[in-house]
Write a structure and sequence with these properties.
It is built from 21 helices and eight strands. By secondary structure, it is mainly α. It folds into two domains: 272 residues, Fumarase C, Chain A, domain 2 (Up-down Bundle), CATH 1.20.200.10; 69 residues.
Length: 485
């Protein structure tokens, strides 16, 4: 197992979002935007604004990593920055920045700014995973595999269609995250400690300068809303559930009992005692990740749903753990891509599993119904009698489904002889022929799967465009503040 694989399945926390420096950047951006709004509203002179703005830039450069970590573990980043600005430019000017605002609306604004970043990162990883799925689906339109119901071979499918099923699940995850983003991207600034301010602030201008879609109108809910957190928690739990289910399937497909999926050595491991073992690690790694995500979601819902509508410590005490969940999901999506890229379908084995599992028996029944004119229930009995006869004789194999056997079974089932040659019966039981006969759309039939692929690619491109625009809106706002007045 190579180092890349190990890095994805290790249990240590990946600190993609636990970034004190990033929070410092948000604090600085927010303060600079606030100063810009204040001068536009007449609360600062141009000279005071320029002094404060330059001071804030200098503070960002001077505050150390230790200062930021201390602020994240007990101290308060607001007071760290406030005191640093006092030291940098003098209290008389620096204190004019704190007009009509509270740590409440400041922190809840920063929470939402941080949540935007989580949604972007998750959407980026989902889209990258969809691209991998699309490429492999394109190559496997006619790669027949057995589909299962209740753990038993049921009907034929294709690897391409299976991959596009995962793609659709991820489309729905993107839709949930986009909806959550619309709730997240509303600015709480201007709410103060929950009832607004007597100062004539421009919260709409501030929302624009911070890259939000708009300002929250209800001042109480600006500081106490938890729905945007909970919606992302729920979206992440559903995404994790999908990845866990896919992990289960990959594990089964790679098992000796099924044997249709082969992972290369870089994603598999052995045993310290059993020399024959080849453990397919991605499946188990994806499965085990889901339980902590569910637990975190339940914790968030229990905490967020058992508190006052007024802001208290519990309003946000559970919020920071969402970063751990996001970290894990980013790794899981990378792991799924790695697993798909480093695994191959044993096409001959998969086709044999589909054929020998009688997965085209339903198609044989449907064809007999259309040809003989008897109801499906009765033709079902014809095919069922043939299969059960072979079971009783311990001769269950597709090649033993003969014309002679059909004559006997049809007399029992419908009272007259239905004649088909051995070759005709073999064609009826061909898995790919079964798929090509489907007419309802959206099926594993290669023609249908190509349409699913085209629709999925369009949806993915639409989401890519939306995500690019969402990031640009925030980037443009940051550039506006960076440029200054």
């Amino acid at each position: 197992m190579d180092e890349l694989m190990q890095s994805y399945i290790q249990t240590e926390k990946k600190e993609l979002f636990h970034d004190c420096k990033y929070r410092a950047d948000l604090e600085t951006w927010l303060n600079r935007a606030y100063a810009m709004m204040l001068v536009e509203q007449g609360f600062l002179t141009r000279e005071e604004y320029e002094k404060i703005d330059k001071g804030l830039v200098a503070v960002l450069a001077s505050v150390t990593e230790e200062d930021l970590k201390n602020a994240a573990h007990g101290q308060d980043i607001f007071f760290v920055y406030e005191q640093a600005l006092y030291d940098q430019i003098g209290m008389d000017t620096a204190c004019k920045l704190h007009v009509g605002r509270s740590r409440n609306d400041i922190y809840f604004t920063e929470h939402r700014m941080n949540m935007r970043r989580i949604v972007w990162q998750l959407m980026d990883e989902i889209i990258a995973t969809q691209k991998t799925l699309e490429a492999q689906a394109q190559e496997n339109m006619e790669t027949v595999i057995p589909y299962y119901t209740y753990g038993q071979p049921a009907q034929p499918g294709t690897w391409g269609h299976y991959l596009m099923s995962i793609h659709l699940c991820l489309e729905n995850d993107l839709s949930r995250l986009r909806h959550a983003y619309g709730i997240i991207n509303q600015c709480p600034m201007g709410a103060g400690a929950g009832i607004g301010s007597a100062f004539r602030l421009n919260k709409y201008r501030l929302a624009e300068l911070l890259g939000f879609d708009g300002a929250l109108e209800n001042t109480l809910m600006a500081n106490s809303a938890v729905d945007y957190y909970l919606e992302v928690e729920a979206a992440m739990a559903i995404l994790s559930g999908t990845l866990s289910r896919v992990g289960h399937d990959l594990d089964f497909f790679a098992s000796t009992e099924c044997g249709i999926l082969d992972g290369d050595a870089s994603i598999c491991g052995g045993s310290s005692i059993m020399p024959q073992k080849k453990n397919y690690h991605p499946g188990a790694a994806l499965r085990k990740s889901a339980t902590p995500v569910y637990a975190q979601m339940l914790n968030a819902f229990a905490s967020g749903g058992s508190i006052s509508l007024f802001p208290i410590y519990e309003t946000y005490s559970y919020c920071y753990t969402i970063f751990d969940t996001a970290d894990g999901l980013v790794s899981d999506l990378k792991l799924l891509r790695l697993a798909l890229e480093r695994s191959r379908i044993r096409k001959d084995v998969a086709l044999a599993r589909a054929r020998d599992g009688f997965t085209a028996a339903t198609h044989m029944t449907e064809q007999l119904t259309m040809e003989v004119g008897e109801p499906f229930v009765k033709t079902h009995h014809i095919v069922g009698n043939m299969i059960h006869t072979l079971m009783d004789q311990d001769r269950l194999a597709v090649e033993n489904m003969t014309g002679e056997l059909m004559k006997e079974a049809s007399v029992k089932a419908v009272g007259f002889v239905v004649e088909r040659t051995d070759e005709q019966i073999a064609q009826m039981l061909d898995p790919l022929a079964s798929l090509n006969a489907k007419v309802t759309g959206g099926t594993p039939k290669p023609e249908d799967t190509r349409k699913l692929l085209e629709a999925g690619q369009k949806n993915r491109r639409d989401n890519e465009a939306w995500l690019t625009q969402a990031k640009k809106q925030v980037s443009d706002a940051f550039a506006l503040v960076e440029k200054g007045l």
